[in-house]
Hints:
This protein has 92 residues and is α+β, with helices and mostly antiparallel strands. Helix content is 46%, strand content 23%. A three-stranded antiparallel beta sheet has the order 2-1-3.
Amino acid sequence: MLGQNAARATSLDNRIFVYEVTGLQQNEVTQYQETPIRSSSTQQIQVPFHRMNEEMQRILMMGGKIVNISSLEQLSASDTQAQAEPVEAMAE
């Protein structure tokens, strides 16, 4: 039983999640970073599983709001499916 939980934890640690964030602003916390924050409405940030909590706190400190969290696997699977559908439609 313990070995099963350890194997599951290892597979989760390797997963990457994508945060969709709105409202990030340049402020006193971020003004000394090397790269400025874009002024677009949403940003996507890739985060490994083991850093999810830290990244959420950092986003909140910068005034951002997380509007969606998806696994990178889900996004790549939906992109693959979306790309395959138009090809099938053109074949008809």
